[in-house]
Amino acid sequence: VSAPSGVRAPRAEGSPRTAGPQSLDELETPAAVVDPRLVAANARRAAEYARAHDLAWRPHTKSHKSRAVGRIQLEGGARGLTVATPREAEVMADVTDDVLLAYPPVGESKVARAVRVAGDVRLTVALDSEAALEALAAAAARQGVTVGVLVEMDVGMRRVGVQSAEEVRALAGRARALDGVEYRGVAFYPGHIRVHQDEQEQPLAELSARIGRLLDVLGSADLAPAVVSGGSTPTFWRSHEVVGVTEVRAGTLIFNDREQVAMGAADWADCAYSVLATVVSTAVAGQAVVDAGSKALSKEGRGAGGTFGALLDRPEVTVSGLSEEHGILDLSATSWRPTVGERVRIVPNHVCVSANLQDALWAWDGDHLERWEQEARGRGPWLPAPAR
Amino acid sequence: VSAPSGVRAPRAEGSPRTAGPQSLDELETPAAVVDPRLVAANARRAAEYARAHDLAWRPHTKSHKSRAVGRIQLEGGARGLTVATPREAEVMADVTDDVLLAYPPVGESKVARAVRVAGDVRLTVALDSEAALEALAAAAARQGVTVGVLVEMDVGMRRVGVQSAEEVRALAGRARALDGVEYRGVAFYPGHIRVHQDEQEQPLAELSARIGRLLDVLGSADLAPAVVSGGSTPTFWRSHEVVGVTEVRAGTLIFNDREQVAMGAADWADCAYSVLATVVSTAVAGQAVVDAGSKALSKEGRGAGGTFGALLDRPEVTVSGLSEEHGILDLSATSWRPTVGERVRIVPNHVCVSANLQDALWAWDGDHLERWEQEARGRGPWLPAPAR
Predict the structure, then answer these.
(1) Cβ–Cβ under 8 Å, residues A288 and A338
(2) CB of B310 within 8 A of CB of B277?
(3) Pick from B144, B100, B94: which is nearest to B125 by CA?
(4) Closest-CA residue in chain B for A296?
């Protein structure tokens, strides 16, 4: 098998395009709007940074769940794609021949789906338990395919990952011994490090020392990892400060959001995603109510001052409250007084969960409107179309 | 036109049923599971309470977005259904002939969709602005249909609703004067009143006094409302304490959730909805990680102690953290130590936003598994099936 290039030729899908809306004005709200020029620019900049530091950028596609955006990431210079669910793996295997499932497939059906993807493209799985490893290896061996394995280590976030270099070594050794899987390296996720909140380099230096020790332990055991997969959007531009890292998975930066801007990981002008909404009520003084609520923006506060979003063109206007279908625009910092029917675009706190709430993404370059499906939303495979 | 009965004969849908899983064990996780026996019991109890107090129960269907659950509500004794979006209106018009759109349709496409529904079933719309009223009336008149109108008044939540009885009177008078619409009454939503947090009857007494004054003002202007639509799940069982109310829209009680239990509006045993999840990691001591994250449960804290859910069968085990595909089970209050692969059922804080994240609801009565589509999820009408 020759080394994968990362990009896969698009399948002929005979996409049945409905007539549909031609401009933002014709979109019914709420609707997710992305600027394809910013998406492409964000992808290029990330890939350039990675190239400059001899890193592979393997972006996580959970932020968009769309083949179209995956293709832009690859065309911009991404080396393969990262996914979290079987559905994402299946869909992204249509656009790249090199998929990292950064999540252990646990349970018969998930293992079977992962193995099926591995029969089609180069698949690597990150995991942290012998239980997950053994089940995956057994299923892969039965099907005569090979699944790559990264052993995940916890570097301080305390979510998943084995707790010590010695445990990594043990699981890596077990992976090497089993049929059906191939030990490829290690993975970690520094999701607890918020660069902006702690300007000193200590957290990254500590992380780097920890990875260095891990590499020593593995090297001594003849288990030197081919892949050291790390990276998050908040720490992305400083990924090169962590010794030994070979690839970074940061995905949110394809769109950016209010939280990334608050952390200093992006500028407001880099925000490529917003939710188009319509003012539906101005009955209560000092505020306007729009039709984008928690079912379009998601109610995640996430260190953005207790508010849930801000207007793309008027960032001083924040979303101070959310019900399921209502967003409350706080007008206290503006003299602007919208009327019922007026439209706004809202940048959410956390774009990945907002994008997951949409029927589709609408790409608008100021001139041309295109619908980008989010084929990897939902769980599948039992996803018959709604009866209607 | 004869008075609607509320229930509409089901359409023949020729539902193409896939083989699919036959039991909870065969479901891939995360998956939303509902107990149809509890759903039916919750519906019956609500309808019985309403009947005993001469109120109509017109439940909000945003909590489930499913024709199947709408039918159970109607069979249990609901009188028509409430919706928030055009999509919900279109879908629920298949199961009832009497729909309340408790949300102003603002924008050409939403108005057109509302008017189309009004050509098919009895439709009433709650609104709070002349702009929304005039656009709706004009479109309805053009199509030769009549849309009922409730004028919404703010009773303290400060979300939507005109601010005084006099404003209600003015808008009601305008509705009566316009072709295409029929003034039917008033609506309010006491979403700010949390019964359990304030056991004294003052909030409800104040609300009742406020509605009483409103009825006086309207009565004096020959605008006595045929419908006074109110009610929320937290205040549901005390709706009869508010003078003049004719219908209550409470919908969450069909499932209940952790927040309703915390407020004393439901018992844990009334919780009909949970998310089935699989343990995927036990690498970090004191916790277990499941595959239900914020994309299955939603990250809404909502006064439930800063945690995001609890196990149905072990409510002392809470979800202490959520990433998009990871839920952290806090094991500090239990001696139970789950292993990778073990399955749990999690009751979320806010069921309506969790249900909105699912591909479908799985009805499990302990013996038989049935898939209930959520046809009203998403926005439509441009909803072609995913290409794959």
Answers:
(1) yes
(2) no
(3) B100
(4) B378
DSSP structure class, residue B153 = B
Rg of chain B over Cα atoms, rounded to whole angstroms, equals 22
Preferred mutation among B284, B322, B325, B339 to probe A, highest tally of A CBs within 10 A: B284
Helix (H, G, I), strand (E, B) or coil at B88: helix
Distance CA B388, CA B380 (A): 19
Q: For strand B227-230 and strand B247-248, is the pairing parallel, antiparallel, or unpaired?
A: parallel
Task: Tell me which residues of chain A have a pLDDT lower than 50.
Answer: 1-3, 12-17, 382-388
SS3 of residue A4 by DSSP: coil
pTM of the model: 0.94
Contact B282 A129 (CB under 8 A): yes
Question: Rounded CA gap, A192 and A161, in Å?
Answer: 13
Is B295 an interface residue toward A (CB < 8 Å)?
yes
Structure tokens at A296: 């379009």
Q: CB B159 to CB A323 under 8 A?
A: yes
Cα separation of A335 and A367, whole Å?
30
E strands present in B3-104 = 31-34, 56-57, 81-83, 98-101
Could you tell me how many residues make up chain A?
Answer: 388
Q: Is the dihedral of CA B127, B129, B133, B135 positive or negative?
A: negative
Are B379 and B288 contacting, i.e. CB atoms less than 8 angstroms apart?
Answer: no
B31 is written with which tokens?
């998956």
Cα gap A92→A113, rounded to integer Å: 13
**Each residue of B84-134: pLDDT tens digit?**
999 999 999 999 999 999 999 999 999 999 999 999 999 999 999 999 999
| Cα B346 off chain centre by | 20
Helices (H), ranges, chain A: 36-52, 67-76, 86-92, 108-118, 130-143, 165-177, 202-220, 258-262, 351-355
CA dihedral A44, A47, A49, A55 (to 10 degrees): 180
Best B324, B328, B362 member to test A by mutation, with max A CBs in 10 Å, is: B324
Confirm if B361 and B303 have CB atoms less than 8 A apart.
no
Q: How many CB atoms lie within 10 A of CB A99?
A: 31
Q: Does A289 touch chain B (CB under 8 A)?
A: yes
SS3 B32: strand
Strand-pair partners of B330 = B287, B318
Amino acid at B202: Q
Beta-strand relationship, A327-330 and A318-322: antiparallel
Which residues in B lie closer than 8 A to residue A70 (C-beta atoms)?
Answer: none
User: Are A346 and A312 in contact, with CB atoms under 8 Å apart?
Assistant: yes
Q: What is the pLDDT of residue B266?
A: 94
- Residue B388 and residue A382: Cβ atoms within 8 Å? no
For residues A175 and A185, the answer to whether their CB atoms sit within 8 Å is no
DSSP-assigned states of every residue in B191-231: TT--GGG--SSHHHHHHHHHHHHHHHHHHHTT---SEEEE-
CA of B52 to nearest chain A CA: how many angstroms apart? 30
* Arithmetic mean of pLDDT, B362-374: 97
The tens digit of pLDDT for each residue in B206-251 reads 999 999 999 999 999 999 999 999 988 888 999 999 999 999 999 9
Taking only Cα atoms into account, the Rg of chain A, rounded to an integer number of angstroms, comes to 22
